[in-house]
Amino acid sequence: MKVNPQQLAFLATFLKRRSGVVIDASKAYLVEARLLPVLRQRGLDDFEGLVERVRSARDPGLEQDVLNAMMTHETSFFRDRSPFETVKRLLPDLLKRRTVARHLVLWSAAASSGQEAYSLAILLNEHFREALVGWSVRILATDISEPVLARAREGLYSDFEVARGLPVELRDKYFVRLQGKWSIGHDCRKYVEFRRMNLLEAWQGVPPCDVVFLRNILIYFDIPTRAAILAKMRSTVRPDGALFLGGAETMLGVCDTYDRVEGVGCSAYRPRSGPAAKRP
Question: DSSP letter string over 256-278?
Answer without folding.
Answer: -SEEEPTTSSS-EEEEPSSSPPP
